[in-house]
Amino acid sequence: MLNLIDLSVVFPARQEKLVDLAEDLSLSRNQIRMFDRFFGFETFHCDHNEPLDALLSRATDGLMARNPHHRAALSHAVHCHTLLTTHVFGQSSAVAQSPACLAGFASEGVEVFSATMNHCATGLSMLGLLDHLLDPGDLGLILIGEKAFHPAIRVIENTTIMGEAAAAVLVGHAPGPFEVVDTFVRHAPQFWKNTGLRGENYLEGFDSAYLHLASSTLRDALAHFDRTAQSLRWIMPHNVNAPSWYQVAEDAGLDKAQLRLSTIGCYGHCFGVDPFLNLWRGAQDGVLQPGDEVLLFSIGLGATASCALLRVTDVPLPLPFPTNGVSG
């Protein structure tokens, strides 16, 4: 069984208030009111002066500094991102297109690669993949994060606003604070086409299909896991917005009180980091006890719904999640 052994989450130190983003993101007064009063957004971490490599390196460096004894067992390292490319076009080698913080691992013989086609759900999908790839005694590193560098990237119209974060997750078959009981992935490939061309309505029909995709995936995942909604202690979802999750919970037969949505207001939707961020916030809030089962869930455009059932163990948790939003 795969285990989450340790996790580092970092954010840019710079914070923005929603009300100050109206001009930069071309948001009307009514849109600001919607994102604030109805969707629950307040502040975001975002710093256009911090390069992606620096953000990702802070997450990886903090994780490996706590686990120097695990470095020799590392066999795979994957950067999960939503945009198809996160570096300048024209860089030829696969390592050059990977985050700089992974280059050292590649030089040590670690298999370094990137994964993107599940978009914001890619990080969760990697749990299932690494469960199959890792041999006994091997460890894997999942690195998640990217920059909200342009208004077209930061805003999904009438849906969500992106913040910035990075997560580094160390996984393996050795005991850890969280056991990955199982994973479940579903694709809705009719929404695959997104060339980036102006005017392309790649989300056409997605708003009406989203609720069914999310709720049916949750129901079918629980059946696959041989669990009921009542057997879950928490659902740790992606931070798209609060109202959509209340609708999904009702349609899927979940209790809204099981949703952990406390990070939406202070971080926004941080691409694929959200479920891991909510897991850590739950640990900081003291709501996770040995034996609890929690469901991590995310949907990525394209579209992919991915979830992972975790069981909290009695192995001591890694460092607590600090109140300033940076876990070393």
From TrEMBL:
Biological processes per GO annotation: secondary metabolite biosynthetic process
Record-linked InterPro entries: ACP_syn_III_C, Thiolase-like
Domain Beta-ketoacyl-[acyl-carrier-protein] synthase III C-terminal as annotated: residue spans: 228-311
Source organism superkingdom: Bacteria
UniProt keyword annotation of Protease present: no
Keyword Transferase: yes
An example molecular function term from Gene Ontology annotations: acyltransferase activity
Keywords in alphabetical order: Acyltransferase, Plasmid, Transferase
Name assigned to this protein: Beta-ketoacyl-[acyl-carrier-protein] synthase III C-terminal domain-containing protein
